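Notebook entry, structure prediction.
Reason for the run: the old model in the group folder had no record of what sequence produced it. Starting over properly, with the input documented here first.
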Amino acid sequence: MEEETILSGYCRRLDAPRMVEAVIRQGKLLEADCDYPACPCLPACPVAQRLQELEHPRDGAAAALGSPS
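New structure, fully documented this time:
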């Protein structure tokens, strides 16, 4: 099943708040409308951290982010 999730956070590269749409199928991130995973600011990016949690959920982390069960 494919699901779409919208994440929000501060983007250092754009120097502005940002909403990112992510498409996930069977636990695999298919696309995100930002530069993840190639962004040079990846280590400090809160949106990238959430995308990584969606790809590799731990103890209900995806549910805490608002993903449907």
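Summary: Residues 2-64 form one domain.
The old model has been moved to the deprecated folder.
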